[in-house]
Every structure is written in C-alpha cells, then in structure tokens.
Design brief:
- The chain has 223 residues and is an alpha/beta fold.
- The protein folds into two domains: 3-16 and 62-221, HAD superfamily/HAD-like (Rossmann fold, 3-Layer(aba) Sandwich), CATH 3.40.50; 23-59, no CATH class.
- 33% of the residues lie in helices and 21% in strands.
- The protein contains eight helices and twelve strands.
- It has helices at residues 36-41, 60-68, 74-84, 99-109, 148-160, 173-180, 197-207, 218-221, and strands at residues 3-7, 14-15, 23-27, 30-34, 51-53, 71-72, 89-94, 111-113, 119-121, 132-133, 165-170, 187-191.
- A five-stranded parallel beta sheet has the order 10-7-1-11-12, sandwiched between helices. Strands 4-3-5 form a three-stranded antiparallel beta sheet. A two-stranded antiparallel ribbon has the order 2-6.
- β11 (165-170), α6 and β12 form a beta-alpha-beta unit.
Length: 223
C-alpha cells in the first residue's frame, strides 16, 4: 500500500508568530491586521462584503521567516512521524501563496523522528511536486472564484487518484468538511490538534538542545 500525509501549515504544522506574517481585513471602512489563528476563526471569512488582503503571504522574507520562526505544533508533528515511519510520503496543502518559497523552506527544515527517536531529514519522502499553496499567483485562473476549502478539496481529489491511502491533516473545519464531502474511501480526514503554551514549554525541555537559541531550528529540533 502506498500512502501520503497531506498537511496544512498554519496552526497545523506550526503556529506563526503574528509579528512575522498576517492577513489584513477590510470591514466598514476599517483595516485590521489578523494573525493566522484569528483569520481561521474570523466569522466574516465567507461574507462577500468583507475583504481580506493576503499581501504578506507573497513577500518572500515574510513567508520564509513565518515558517522557520514558527512554533511547531508537537502533537500534529507526532501524527506525521507515525505515518512517515510506516513508509508514507509527505506533502503540504496550504491556503498561502508563494508556493516555491514554501517548498524550499520545507525541504530545508522539515525533519521527522524515526522509530528510534532520532531526527531524520525529510528527504525523498517530501513530494514537492504534489505540494500546493492554493493562493499562489500561478493558480489565479484555475481557481478563480473558488473558495479556499474547495481549492483544497480539488487538490486532495487529484492526489487521491495516485495513492492507496491519503491522510489529510488540517485545523480549519471548512477544509475538513469540504474534503469529507468528496466521500473518497482512501482519504482519512484528521483535525489538527491545538496546543497550549504550557504544553510547548513542557515538551521543549525533552526535545531541544538547550544550547540552541535560534528559533529557526524549531521545526526540526522540536517534536
């Protein structure tokens, strides 16, 4: 059986620092900057009268910094570890843009823990050709007028034709529901788990070299 883990990034793999990247919301003549978590929970996301600007997600430095400086979500990374150790491939599926930059960052920094607990480079398990940032400029015409959750569902449907077993990990209910509606027998939907600050603190002592101060190492030093 060939399998693949298809994972969201924000609030699934990592929790981005609001200072690194954000979404701008325009409502009633007011402009508000939202964190990725705030955006995911925003009640106006599907209101056509409210506009959202993702310009920061197309700025190379912001995109890179937001991932390598983000706080890894340990519980979700451990789910991914479990499948990778069974021989599954890995790919990302995000509502961000700047797809090529994200691919480079993931290839450089993504690691997993093998069955002995040792960190391994993601290497050939990372299928960059099946990784999608559905708001990348290259998809403007293909996905024109389509909501993010339906964009993700279309990608999942395509990938599901190539694999016997697909694991979709995401934190946004709309994305999970859209994929479930595909009713594909080889696609399993898993809701990404949230973690508290105390959980990050407790785990950190066990998995991080205390001499490492740079947050850029977190994605592959913490799990």
């Amino acid at each position: 059986m060939n399998g693949i883990v298809i994972s969201d990034i924000d609030d699934t793999l990592i929790k981005a620092d609001p200072g690194d990247i954000g979404i701008w919301k325009y409502k009633d003549g007011k402009e508000t900057r939202l964190s990725t978590e705030e955006f995911a929970k925003d009640p106006d996301k599907d209101d056509p009268t409210v506009k959202f600007d993702y310009r920061e997600f197309n700025e190379p430095k912001k995109v890179r910094d937001s991932i390598i400086n983000g706080t890894p979500l340990l519980k979700n990374l451990k789910i991914i570890d479990r499948y990778l150790n069974k021989g599954y491939d890995f790919t990302f599926l995000t509502a961000r843009g700047a797809e090529d930059i994200i691919k480079d960052v993931m290839a450089d920094f993504m690691k997993y823990r093998d069955e002995t607990g040792h960190l391994q480079q993601i290497g050939a398990k990372f299928k960059d050709t099946l990784s999608y940032a559905v708001n990348d400029e290259k998809y403007c015409e293909i996905f024109d007028g389509i909501k993010d959750f339906d964009r993700k569902a279309k990608v999942i449907k395509m990938i599901a034709e190539m694999y016997d077993d697909c694991i979709f990990l995401d934190d946004d209910t709309r994305n999970l529901v859209a994929v479930k509606r595909l009713n594909l027998p080889n696609v399993k939907v898993i809701r990404a788990m949230k973690e508290s600050t105390s959980e990050h603190h407790n785990e950190r002592g066990h998995h991080v070299d205390q001499n490492v101060s740079s947050r850029a190492h977190k994605l592959h030093q913490i799990q």
